[in-house]
Amino acid sequence: MKKPNTFANLDWSSEAPLSTRFDDIYFSTENGLDETTYVFLDGNQLTDRFNAAESLTIAETGFGTGLNFLATWQLFNDQSPAAARLHFISVEKYPIIPDDLIKALALWPELSMFSEQLIAQYPINAPGFHRLSFDNGRVTLTLMLGDAVECYSQLDAEVDAWFLDGFSPAKNPDMWSPELFQQVARLSKPGTTFSTFTSAGIVKRGLREVGFQVKRTDGFGPKWDMLVGSFANNALSEEPETTWSPSWFKLPQKHTGDRSALIIGAGIAGCSTARSLAQRGWKVTLVDKNPQIAAEGSGNRQGALYAKLPVEPIPASRFHLSGFLYSSNFLKQNLADRSDIWSPCGLLQLAASEKELARQRNLAESGNYPEALVRFTDSTEASALAGTTVNKSGLFFPDAGWVTPPLLCQWLTDHPNITVLTNTEITRLEQVDSYWNGFTCDNQTLTAAIIVVASAADSRKFEQLKHLPLQNIRGQVSLTESTSDDYPPALNTVLCSEGYISPAKEGRFCFGATFDLKDEATDIRDSGHQHNLEKVTDMATELGTQLKQYHNNKGLKGRVGFRCASPDKLPIIGPVPVYDTFIEDYAPLRHDAKTVIDISAKHYSGLFANLAHGSKGLITGPISGEIIASMLENEPLPLEKELIDKLNPARFIIKNLIRRAI
C-alpha cells in the first residue's frame, strides 16, 4: 500500500455511472438505493439489529460511490438508540474523483444530509487507512484505499455484518478470490452475517470453504437470486509463525465493567486520549503536575502541522502521513471557525541544500504522493505563496498550517465527561484487583479502572514504565511581542527547513527551534535566539533581517520545552508490557532470532502508555487517542496492524533480544 491508487474512470452516458475499467455499473439503473436496502440492509437484518445493539461493525468490499455507507447511516440514524455507535469499514482500490462523487450522490437527494458530510470529509487519494468521524463520533468510517486483500489483511477488527459488494465476479474475478474470503473469515465471529447481490458459484464455494453457511434467496429486481448467510466457524488452519514478527503483539481484550480512566499528563497526547474516551462515554480524570494544562512540550504559541515525507514511503512515514491527514480533517470538522486555534495556511518545506533539493524533486516526481497532498514549487512560486521573498525552492503542502497547542488542549478537555486536576503529581501506580490507584506526592489516591500515562519522559518514574527508552531533547523557540504599525512583516504560509516560522498570530511571530541534546536547563538564551534568527534568514533573507532588527531594538521573548523521543523516533502507544515476563518468555530469542515461540507475554491489565511524540505531537497526538480508545472498546483500529505494531511499547524489549542473537 505505497503507490497512490489510480482513480476510477466513469462513463456517465447511461442512467447510472459505469466503470470503464470493469465495464460494469456502480448501482442498479432501476433504483440503486432500493437495491442497497434490499440486498445489504435487509439481507443482514439491520433494522432489527440497529434497534437492539449498542454497537455494530459493518464491513464491505467495495466503497464505490459510498451509497451503501450512506444508506446504512440513514437507517442507523432512524433506528438506533442515542448511545449506540456504528463502525463502517470499506475498501476501494480505484476511488472516484470528488466531482464524480458529488455527481453520483446528487441522484439521491433523500440522503443529502448524510452525503454532504461524506463529501466534506472525502479523503485525498493516499494509500492506507482513513478514519472519518460523523455525528460527534456516533458514526465512524474507516475507508481503506488500496487492494482489498492487502487492506483487510492489515485490519484489526471484529465484524458483525459483511456487505460483499463490488463489480461482478465475471468482470472483476481478482477481488472475489480465496485470499479475500480468508480475510472475511478471519475478521468474523460465530453469527457474523453476510449478504451479496451475486449468486456466482465462485462466491458460494469460496464462502463455504472458509466456514460460512450460505443460502440462496430471491434477488433484487430482474436478478433471480442472491446469497445471504452467517459465519459458523473458522475452517482455516493457521500456520504457526516461523520467525519473530511484531504481529505477535497481542492487543488487550475489550474493557468491560467500570468505564473510568485516569490520564497522567495534559499535553496533546493526554488531552486527545481524554477526548476520545469521553466521547465514548468514559468518565475521565486528567491530571497534570503543572498549574495549567499544556505547560510543557505542548506549550508553544504556534507549532507546524505537517508530515515530513521520504521519497519512498516506509512504515514510520506512513504513520506520520496518516496522523497528519487525521489531524487536518479533525481540525476542519471540529474547529473550522476557530482561527485562534489553527490556520490551514499551507506550509513550504524549503530545501536546505542541493542534496535536499534533489530529494524533494524526486519525491514530487515519484508518484508516491498525490498533488493534493504535496507538490514541488520553485523559489518564484514559493515566494508568491509565502507573500515574502524566500531564498529556495521546496515542497508545498496546501492543507498544512499552524496550530496553537495550548488552546487545542483546552478545547479537547472541554467535555462534560472530563475532570481536569492541575497541580497534581502522581508519583506511584498500584493495581488492586480490577482497579488502578495513582498516589500523589501528598499521599492522596486517585482510583480508576484504567490508567493512561502520557507524561513524556517523566513517565519513567513509575516502576511499570522505567524500562522504556525515553529521551528528553531541549528546544527553545523565539517570540515577538510587538504590534506596532510597521510590524509584522508579511508572511502567508508556514516556512520550514532547518527551522520554522509561522505567519504572525495577533501581530506576533513564533519561530525556532533549537535542538539541544543532553541539556536540561530551562533558561532562555540569546544564543538560542541567534540560532533561530539565522534559520529564518536562511529561508527568507528579508524576513530574517527584519526580525533581527526587531531583536536589536526590542529584544525577543522565548520559551523552552522538552521533546520526549524514543530511539526509533516513533511514539510509544499501547498496553504497557510486564518487563520481567517479556524477558523470560522471549529469552530464547537471545540465542536464535528465528526461534518459534508460542507464548504471548503479559501486559499490565488496564495500563497504557502514550508517549514519545517528539516534535510531531500535532500529527501523532490526536490519532493516538483514537488508537487507545479503539483498543479499549474493541473497535476497528484506525491504522494498519503493521503500523500499530510499530508503536507497541514492547517493541524495544523484543528488538534488544533479537539484536543480541544477531
Comma- or semicolon-separated keywords:
alpha/beta; eight-stranded mixed sheet; 31% helix; 23% strand; nine-stranded mixed sheet; 662 residues
Notes on the protein architecture:
With 662 residues, the chain is an alpha/beta fold. It is 31% helix and 23% strand. It is built from 19 helices and 32 strands. The strands form 6 sheets. Strands 16, 17, 18, 25, 26, 27, 28, 29 and 30 form a 9-stranded mixed β-sheet that branches. It has an 8-stranded mixed β-sheet with strand order 6-7-5-4-8-9-11-10, sandwiched between helices. Helix 2 packs across helix 3. The radius of gyration is 26 Å and the shape is globular.
SS-based class:
alpha/beta
Radius of gyration: 26 Å
Q: Termini separation (Å)?
A: 30 Å
Low-confidence stretches: 237-246
Strand content: 15-25%
Treating each run of at least 4 consecutive H or I residues as one helix, how many helices? 19
Anisotropy-based shape: globular
Please, what is the average pLDDT?
A: 90
Number of strands: 32
Report the helical percentage.
25-40%
> Major beta sheet, specifics?
9 strands, mixed
Summarize the structure.
This protein is α/β, with parallel strands linked by helices and 662 residues long. Helices cover 31% and strands 23% of the residues. Strand 1 and strand 2 form a beta hairpin.
Strand and helix map with partners:
Elements: E1 10-11, E2 18-19, E3 24-25, H1 32-42, H2 46-52, E4 55-60, H3 67-79, E5 85-92, H4 98-105, H5 112-121, E6 128-134, E7 139-145, H6 148-153, E8 161-164, H7 178-186, E9 193-196, H8 201-209, E10 212-218, E11 225-231, E12 260-264, H9 268-279, E13 283-287, E14 303-305, H10 315-334, E15 342-343, E16 347-350, H11 354-365, E17 375-377, H12 379-386, E18 394-397, E19 401-403, H13 405-412, E20 418-421, E21 426-432, E22 435-440, E23 445-448, E24 450-453, E25 471-479, E26 494-496, E27 500-501, E28 510-512, E29 516-517, H14 526-539, H15 541-554, E30 557-565, E31 572-577, H16 579-585, E32 603-611, H17 617-633, H18 641-647, H19 651-661
Parallel strand pairs: 4-5, 4-8, 5-7, 8-9, 12-13, 12-24, 13-20, 16-26, 24-32
Antiparallel strand pairs: 1-2, 2-3, 6-7, 9-11, 10-11, 14-19, 15-19, 16-18, 17-18, 21-22, 22-23, 25-28, 25-29, 25-30, 26-27, 27-28, 31-32
Helix pairs in contact: 1-3, 2-3, 9-13, 9-17, 10-17, 14-15
